[in-house]
């Protein structure tokens, strides 16, 4: 267990240097003020005199996330909203848990490249490029690492018969995540079914059914 978390820690340090895309800090740290009175591009700095060690601390990634849901997966994200010391440092982190058959569905991160390492089990990982919609797929086993370029649609799927665990580092304090199906069929207010029927070459009845699957109540 100790060697596993040492590996994960070193992994996080490497990606922070290799993939950081947020603006560099202009001081040692700029801990996020979680209740700012002004809005800026990013997060306002907390008064340095009020900063404590807990501002740089997040516990619990040794514990499995709850995969008892329709997707059979759980993502425990560590970003600036729950680890304020990440502000301006250009990095965030996540633990991904998968039940057998579990899926993190097609999505993309508008502000970050993602690098993933498998800790337990086996994962099928896929991304699709913007050039001719070329699909890149790989089966990852324990200790394997894979990179998902910024802004490209990707997913992770546990095709195995046992649970799988992975850790991801992302090159932004606030990478954002857009789940493709939710955005297209579950937007609020909804996209016109005329538009979606034409775009997906489906009849409006089918589109209406798809939209019903992604409303807030489902």
UniProtKB/TrEMBL annotation:
Record's keyword annotation contains Secreted: yes
Protein residues bound to Mn(2+): 107, 109, 114, 154
Subcellular location field: Secreted, Extracellular space, Apoplast
Boundaries of every Cupin type-1 domain copy: 59-208
CDD domains: cupin_OxOx
Alphabetic keyword roster: Apoplast, Disulfide bond, Manganese, Metal-binding, Secreted, Signal
Cysteines joined through disulfide linkages: 30-45
Alphabetical list of Pfam families matching this protein: Cupin_1
GO cellular component term, pick one: apoplast
Signal sequence segment: 1-20
Domain of life of the source: Eukaryota
SUPFAM superfamilies assigned: RmlC-like cupins (SSF51182)
One example GO MF annotation: manganese ion binding
Presence of keyword Manganese: yes
Major localization listed first in the record, in broad terms: secreted
Annotated binding of oxalate, by residue: 109, 114
Family listed: Belongs to the germin family.
Identification of the protein by name: Germin-like protein
């Amino acid at each position: 267990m100790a060697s596993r978390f040492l590996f994960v820690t070193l992994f996080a340090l490497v990606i922070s240097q290799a993939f950081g895309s947020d603006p560099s800090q202009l001081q040692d740290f700029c801990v996020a003020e979680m209740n700012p009175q002004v809005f800026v591009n990013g997060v306002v700095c907390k008064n340095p005199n009020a900063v404590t060690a807990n501002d740089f601390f997040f516990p619990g990634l040794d514990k499995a996330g709850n995969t008892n849901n329709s997707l059979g997966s759980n993502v425990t994200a560590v970003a600036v909203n729950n680890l304020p010391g990440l502000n301006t440092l250009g990095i965030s982190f996540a633990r991904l848990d998968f039940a057998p058959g579990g899926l993190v569905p097609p999505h993309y991160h508008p502000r970050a490249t993602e690098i993933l390492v498998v800790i337990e089990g086996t994962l099928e990982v896929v991304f699709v490029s913007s050039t001719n919609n070329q699909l890149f797929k790989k089966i990852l086993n324990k200790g394997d690492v894979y990179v998902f370029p910024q802004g490209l649609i990707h997913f992770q799927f546990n095709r195995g018969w046992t649970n799988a665990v992975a850790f991801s580092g992302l090159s932004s304090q606030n990478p954002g995540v857009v789940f493709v199906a939710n955005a297209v069929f579950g937007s609020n207010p909804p996209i016109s079914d005329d538009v979606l029927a034409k775009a997906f070459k489906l009849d409006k009845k089918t589109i209406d059914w798809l939209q019903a699957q992604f409303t807030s109540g489902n």
